[in-house]
Amino acid sequence: MAIQWFPGHMNKARKAIAERAKSVDMVIEMLDARMPASSENPLLAQLSKGKPKLKF
Question: Which UniProt keywords apply (predicted)?
Answer without folding.
Answer: GTP-binding, Nucleotide-binding
